[in-house]
Design goal:
single chain, 135 residues, 2 domains, two-stranded antiparallel sheet, 13% strand
C-alpha cells in the first residue's frame, strides 16, 4: 500500500493505492490439478487514510467484498438462474434484478437459511410471501 502514487491517479478522494497478491495452488479434485501455482495481483484504490486502513484492514475489506458476492450474486445466479433470463427490452432486466434482490433481502431478514427452499415454499403459498412484506 502506498500514498506516493496519489498524485498520478485521477480518481476522486484517493488516499491509498494498494496491491493484493494471491498465490493460486491446486487442490484435490480442482481443475488446476497438475498445474504449477500461479500468482494473481489485484490493484485497488481506497479513500481510507493509511492510519485507518493498515494492510490487515484492507485485506479484511477485500474479503468482505466476496461475502457480498457469495451471499447475493451466487443466489441470483443459481437460485433464480438469472444468467439465462431472456428479458432484454427497456428496463425490464433491471426491474427483475431489483425484485430478485428484494426477495433475497426479505428472506435474509426473515432469517431464512436456505433461499432456494424458501423460494419454492413461498411460490406455492402467496399469502406467506405477502406476510414477509407485512401485507
Amino acid at each position: 500500500m502506498s500514498s506516493a502514487l496519489n498524485a498520478y491517479v485521477s480518481f476522486p478522494h484517493v488516499e491509498q493505492v494498494f496491491c493484493i497478491e494471491r498465490i493460486v495452488t491446486k487442490l484435490d479434485g480442482s481443475p488446476l490439478r497438475g498445474k504449477r501455482p500461479r500468482v494473481e495481483r489485484m490493484f485497488g484504490v481506497t479513500s481510507l487514510a493509511p492510519v485507518l486502513a493498515l494492510p490487515a484492514r484492507l485485506l479484511e475489506l477485500n474479503r468482505g467484498h466476496w461475502s457480498i458476492e457469495n451471499r447475493v450474486h451466487y443466489v441470483r445466479d443459481w437460485t433464480f438462474d438469472e444468467d439465462r433470463c431472456r428479458v432484454r427490452k427497456g428496463h425490464a432486466a433491471q426491474t427483475l434484478a431489483a425484485l430478485r434482490n428484494l426477495a433475497i433481502s426479505l428472506m435474509r431478514q426473515a432469517l431464512v437459511s436456505n433461499v432456494a427452499a424458501s423460494v419454492r415454499r413461498h411460490a406455492r403459498r402467496v399469502g406467506r410471501a405477502l406476510a414477509l412484506i407485512g401485507v
